[in-house]
Amino acid sequence: MTLVAGSYERFLFGYHLSNASLEGSPPKNFLTYPAHQGPVRSMACCGALVVSGGSDDTFHTFDLSQSRDLGSQANPAQGAVTAVALFAPPGRVSPQHLLTGAAGGEIAVWARSGRRASQPWTL
Predict the structure, then answer these.
(1) pLDDT tens digits for 71-95?
(2) What is the domain count for the chain?
(3) Where residue 29 sits, what CATH number does that domain have?
(4) Which residue among 2, 96, 101, 113 is buried most deeply as judged by most CB within 10 Å?
Protein backbone atom coordinates (compact mmCIF):
# COMPACT_ATOMS: atom_id res chain seq x y z
CA MET A 1 0.00 0.00 0.00
CA THR A 2 1.20 3.55 -0.74
CA LEU A 3 0.42 6.66 1.30
CA VAL A 4 1.08 10.14 -0.11
CA ALA A 5 0.60 13.30 1.95
CA GLY A 6 1.12 17.02 1.51
CA SER A 7 2.37 19.36 4.19
CA TYR A 8 1.97 22.94 5.29
CA GLU A 9 5.73 23.27 4.73
CA ARG A 10 5.26 22.76 0.90
CA PHE A 11 6.46 19.15 0.71
CA LEU A 12 4.93 15.97 -0.67
CA PHE A 13 5.78 12.83 1.30
CA GLY A 14 5.35 9.25 0.13
CA TYR A 15 5.48 6.07 2.20
CA HIS A 16 5.25 2.38 1.37
CA LEU A 17 3.16 0.60 4.00
CA SER A 18 3.36 -3.13 4.62
CA ASN A 19 1.76 -5.48 7.11
CA ALA A 20 4.84 -4.95 9.30
CA SER A 21 4.35 -1.18 9.29
CA LEU A 22 0.71 -1.65 10.23
CA GLU A 23 1.90 -3.70 13.22
CA GLY A 24 4.31 -1.07 14.54
CA SER A 25 7.35 -1.02 12.25
CA PRO A 26 7.96 2.39 10.67
CA PRO A 27 6.80 2.82 7.05
CA LYS A 28 9.45 3.22 4.33
CA ASN A 29 9.76 6.77 3.01
CA PHE A 30 10.28 6.87 -0.77
CA LEU A 31 9.36 10.48 -1.56
CA THR A 32 10.21 13.82 0.01
CA TYR A 33 9.66 16.52 -2.60
CA PRO A 34 9.34 20.35 -2.37
CA ALA A 35 6.37 20.66 -4.73
CA HIS A 36 5.21 24.20 -3.95
CA GLN A 37 6.38 27.62 -2.78
CA GLY A 38 3.90 27.51 0.11
CA PRO A 39 1.53 25.07 1.83
CA VAL A 40 0.01 22.13 -0.03
CA ARG A 41 -3.74 22.78 0.02
CA SER A 42 -5.15 19.80 -1.90
CA MET A 43 -4.15 16.43 -3.38
CA ALA A 44 -5.54 13.73 -5.66
CA CYS A 45 -4.20 10.35 -6.82
CA CYS A 46 -5.20 8.16 -9.75
CA GLY A 47 -3.10 5.18 -10.72
CA ALA A 48 0.52 6.27 -10.39
CA LEU A 49 -0.27 9.97 -10.86
CA VAL A 50 -0.38 12.40 -7.94
CA VAL A 51 -1.53 16.00 -8.33
CA SER A 52 -1.16 18.58 -5.58
CA GLY A 53 -2.62 22.07 -5.40
CA GLY A 54 -0.85 24.78 -3.48
CA SER A 55 -1.26 28.19 -1.95
CA ASP A 56 1.17 29.40 -4.66
CA ASP A 57 -1.69 29.30 -7.26
CA THR A 58 -0.20 26.26 -9.04
CA PHE A 59 -0.85 22.55 -9.30
CA HIS A 60 1.99 20.06 -9.46
CA THR A 61 2.03 16.60 -11.09
CA PHE A 62 4.22 13.69 -9.97
CA ASP A 63 4.51 10.17 -11.43
CA LEU A 64 5.00 7.68 -8.59
CA SER A 65 5.82 4.74 -10.89
CA GLN A 66 8.88 6.55 -12.25
CA SER A 67 9.57 8.76 -9.19
CA ARG A 68 9.48 11.62 -11.64
CA ASP A 69 8.36 15.23 -11.42
CA LEU A 70 6.12 16.05 -14.38
CA GLY A 71 6.10 19.77 -13.64
CA SER A 72 3.77 22.44 -12.39
CA GLN A 73 1.22 24.65 -14.10
CA ALA A 74 -0.45 27.87 -13.04
CA ASN A 75 -4.15 27.66 -12.27
CA PRO A 76 -6.11 30.11 -14.48
CA ALA A 77 -8.14 31.42 -11.53
CA GLN A 78 -6.97 33.73 -8.78
CA GLY A 79 -6.00 32.27 -5.43
CA ALA A 80 -4.80 29.03 -3.94
CA VAL A 81 -5.67 25.70 -5.59
CA THR A 82 -7.92 24.39 -2.83
CA ALA A 83 -9.28 21.34 -4.68
CA VAL A 84 -7.95 18.90 -7.28
CA ALA A 85 -9.54 15.77 -8.74
CA LEU A 86 -8.47 13.29 -11.41
CA PHE A 87 -10.98 11.48 -13.61
CA ALA A 88 -10.34 8.14 -15.31
CA PRO A 89 -13.20 6.55 -17.27
CA PRO A 90 -14.33 3.09 -16.12
CA GLY A 91 -11.82 0.43 -17.10
CA ARG A 92 -8.91 2.87 -17.47
CA VAL A 93 -6.12 3.47 -14.99
CA SER A 94 -4.69 6.62 -16.54
CA PRO A 95 -6.70 9.80 -15.89
CA GLN A 96 -8.04 11.72 -18.88
CA HIS A 97 -9.17 14.85 -17.06
CA LEU A 98 -8.02 16.99 -14.15
CA LEU A 99 -10.27 19.39 -12.29
CA THR A 100 -8.90 22.25 -10.19
CA GLY A 101 -10.79 24.51 -7.83
CA ALA A 102 -9.54 27.88 -6.65
CA ALA A 103 -10.08 29.89 -3.48
CA GLY A 104 -12.27 32.34 -5.42
CA GLY A 105 -14.76 29.60 -6.34
CA GLU A 106 -13.67 29.02 -9.95
CA ILE A 107 -13.38 25.49 -11.37
CA ALA A 108 -11.16 24.57 -14.32
CA VAL A 109 -11.38 21.31 -16.29
CA TRP A 110 -8.17 20.19 -17.97
CA ALA A 111 -7.82 17.47 -20.63
CA ARG A 112 -4.72 15.38 -19.93
CA SER A 113 -2.47 14.68 -22.87
CA GLY A 114 0.92 13.14 -22.22
CA ARG A 115 2.79 14.78 -19.38
CA ARG A 116 0.91 18.10 -19.31
CA ALA A 117 -2.66 19.25 -19.05
CA SER A 118 -4.04 21.20 -22.01
CA GLN A 119 -5.68 24.62 -21.87
CA PRO A 120 -8.57 24.45 -19.40
CA TRP A 121 -12.25 25.13 -19.67
CA THR A 122 -13.13 27.48 -16.84
CA LEU A 123 -16.53 27.23 -15.13
Answers:
(1) 898 888 788 999 999 999 898 888 8
(2) 1
(3) 2.130.10.10
(4) 101
